[in-house]
Amino acid sequence: MLYSIVESTVKLHQTLYISLGYINLPERVMISRRLPLAATVLACVFAQPALAQDRAFSFSLTGGASVKPDYFGSRDYSIGPTGAFGFTGLRFGAAQLGDPDGPTEFAPGTGLRGAFRYIPSRSGDDELLGLDRVSTSVELGLGLHHTTETWQVYSDLRYGAIGHRGIAGEIGANVIYRDPGGLVLHAGPRAEWGNGRFMRNYFGISPTEAAQISAQGNTGLAGLTPAGGYEPSGGIYSIGLEVGAYQPLSDNWGVTGSIRYDRLRGDAASSPIVQQGRRDQITAEIGLTRHFNLRF
């Protein structure tokens, strides 16, 4: 039995050898040309998982608490939620925006950054008796930054997607210190601006509201409000200074904190709402940051 199997195997090899011997030259050339093509196709197929790794989206989300004035120009402070969105980078094959694999905080380079702000509602009672209620607003947008190892300049543009439906923005600069252990410190000036719709929403008083203020006996605000109300124009409404820190806890988690001083100016400072309150505003925030690096 074993002898028969060996004999059959030998005959099969002989048959293959004889058959290949009869292949003429053109046929051999065709085979030699097709082999590299087949190899290329196989290489592309097996390379697909590797190419997928060239698509990445990196960003960060921060959630926490803040202590800040009850409204623009308020004398009173309250604790409330705060949040932030940070754009790190996007890569899709050869195209890249930012650096998905770079530093997660104050990444060196020039590119886009996320812009987000939450503004709580303002009630029309107590010292603002007679004013209409102002709804909560959520501003979303993008910014452009140029960052080095030791300094940064940036400009943000935000739209009131929920709430005031106006346009607001911020320009600023930072001096940056990077500790070898991961701690990142920053400090620099800030300037906030808003268009006419934004300014009227937070610093304006309509003629109807002016009449309501007097009718409801709010003598403090009534003495500062013109009979026809107050209509501010768009522009820079505050300038200030921020000092902040970021301490990483792991590759994906970190703690963010900042304290900021702003002074209302221009038409905002001239508003009766601010005159009965305070131009100087202080905000302190602390939050937990989670970094995401998505591969797809």
What does the model show?
This protein has seven helices and eleven strands. The protein has helices spanning 2-21, 25-52, 196-203, 207-215, 219-222, 266-270, 272-275, and strands at 55-69, 77-92, 95-98, 109-119, 137-147, 151-162, 167-178, 184-194, 235-248, 253-264, 280-295. An eleven-stranded antiparallel beta sheet has the order 3-2-1-11-10-9-8-7-6-5-4.
Mean pLDDT: 85
Structural classification:
alpha+beta
* Helix amount: 25-40%
Counting H and I runs of at least 4 residues, what is the number of helices?
A: 7
Percent strand equals over 45%
User: Largest beta sheet: what is the strand line-up?
Assistant: 3-2-1-11-10-9-8-7-6-5-4
- Helices and strands, in order, run as HHEEEEEEEEHHHEEHHE
Give the low-confidence spans.
1-6, 8-35, 41-52
Number of domains: 2
Shape: elongated
**Tally of DSSP β-strands:** 11
CATH architecture of the largest domain: Beta Barrel
Taking the alpha carbons of the first and last residues, their distance comes to: 57 Å
Briefly, what is this?
This protein is α+β, with helices and mostly antiparallel strands and 296 residues long. Helices cover 26% and strands 45% of the residues. It has two domains: 2-49; 56-295, Beta Barrel (Lipocalin), CATH 2.40.128.
Lay out the secondary structure.
Layout: H1 2-21, H2 25-52, E1 55-69, E2 77-92, E3 95-98, E4 109-119, E5 137-147, E6 151-162, E7 167-178, E8 184-194, H3 196-203, H4 207-215, H5 219-222, E9 235-248, E10 253-264, H6 266-270, H7 272-275, E11 280-295
Antiparallel strand pairs: 1-2, 1-11, 2-3, 4-5, 5-6, 6-7, 7-8, 8-9, 9-10, 10-11
